[in-house]
């Protein structure tokens, strides 16, 4: 099973600033990596798939990069609605699919 | 508009059973693989099970293998998860989710349904 490790666990950022979230895989997942946003009390929402492709309706301030074992989600200028928990997920080859433990982005 | 409407959660005793349902609309259900993902209270996301278009390729997490059964009825645009031999550690919000066209990631999610296993 591929283990996904996200860092940091919590990121404190001021509105308008840039946020950089990291996700590392225990073995190569190629570009088969997705990012999700989850606000309190809501279902997760797909942000990025294929490591860098934005899902439909996702603002351009969200961008993904990386391949193999190292991935990054960047939020260029944080808006109030972006304070949430973010998860990465690998879907390389076949199940089991695995998620990272999440990074909480909080207001500084 | 893609919608996944879930039902069937509740409180059940250890060793008991429950059936979760997920009614799909707004897309051609029979053209997509489907997934179940769960989230224990205050915890992260855990993939539970996946089923392909026709229901002939099915996968389970080791934590639920032999106890949970995923199924689908394409004529009814519905996905199901039968939960048997439930344990306290199965307490979670369960989400159904549509598999992305490439496969493996979840592009649309249901609203979630809470399953509480407690005596």
What are the key terms here?
heterodimer; A: 108 residues; mainly beta; seven-stranded mixed β-sheet; four-stranded antiparallel β-sheet; 11 strands; B: 119 residues; globular
Written overview of the protein:
- The complex is a heterodimer of chains A (108) and B (119).
- Chain A is an all-beta fold.
- Chain A has no helices and eleven strands.
- The termini of chain A are far apart.
- Chain B is an all-beta fold.
- In chain B, 0% of the residues lie in helices and 51% in strands.
- In chain B, the strands form two sheets. In chain B, strands 2, 4, 5, 6, 9, 10 and 11 form a seven-stranded mixed β-sheet that branches.
- In chain B, strand 4 and strand 5 form a beta hairpin.
- Chain B is globular.
- The mean pLDDT of chain B is 96.
- Chains A and B meet through strand 4, strand 5 and strand 10 of A and strand 5 and strand 10 of B.
Question: What's the topology here?
Answer:
The complex is a heterodimer of chains A (108) and B (119).
Chain A: E1 4-7, E2 10-13, E3 19-25, E4 33-38, E5 45-49, E6 53-54, E7 62-67, E8 70-75, E9 85-90, E10 98-99, E11 103-107
Parallel strand pairs in A: 2-11
Antiparallel strand pairs in A: 1-3, 3-8, 4-5, 4-9, 5-6, 7-8, 9-10, 9-11
Chain B: E1 3-7, E2 10-12, E3 18-25, E4 34-39, E5 45-51, E6 58-60, E7 68-73, E8 78-83, E9 92-99, E10 106-109, E11 113-117
- The residue fraction in helices of chain A comes out at under 10%
- Main sheet record of chain A: 7 strands, mixed
Distance between the termini of chain B: 40 Å
Strand content of chain B: over 45%
Largest sheet of chain B: 7 strands, mixed
Overall average residue pLDDT of chain B? 96
Rough outline of chain A: globular
Label the structural class of chain B: mainly beta
Compute the number of strand runs of chain A.
11
Which range does the strand content of chain A fall in? over 45%
Q: Largest interface, per-chain counts?
A: A-B, 24 and 23 residues
Separation of the first and last Cα atoms of chain A: 36 Å
| Form type of chain B | globular
């Amino acid at each position: 099973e591929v283990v996904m490790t996200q860092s940091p666990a919590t990121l404190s950022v001021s509105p308008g600033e840039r946020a950089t979230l990291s996700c590392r895989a225990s073995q190569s997942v190629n570009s088969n990596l997705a990012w999700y946003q989850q606000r309190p009390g809501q279902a997760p929402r797909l942000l990025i798939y294929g490591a860098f492709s934005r899902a439909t309706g996702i603002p351009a301030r969200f961008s993904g990069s990386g391949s193999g074992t190292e991935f990054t989600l960047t939020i260029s200028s944080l808006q109030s609605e972006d304070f949430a928990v973010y998860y990465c997920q690998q879907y390389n080859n076949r199940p089991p699919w695995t998620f990272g433990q999440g990074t909480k982005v909080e207001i500084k | 508009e893609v919608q996944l409407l879930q039902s069937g959660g509740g409180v059940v005793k250890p060793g008991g059973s429950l059936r979760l349902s997920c009614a799909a609309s707004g897309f051609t259900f029979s053209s997509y693989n489907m997934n179940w993902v769960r989230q224990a209270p205050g915890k992260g996301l855990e993939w539970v099970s996946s089923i392909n278009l026709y229901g002939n390729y099915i996968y389970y997490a080791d934590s639920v293998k032999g106890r949970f059964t995923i199924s689908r009825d394409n004529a009814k645009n519905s996905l199901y998860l039968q939960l048997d031999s439930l344990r306290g550690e199965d307490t979670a919000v369960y989400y159904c989710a549509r598999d992305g066209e490439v496969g493996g990631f979840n592009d649309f999610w249901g609203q979630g349904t809470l399953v509480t296993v407690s005596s």
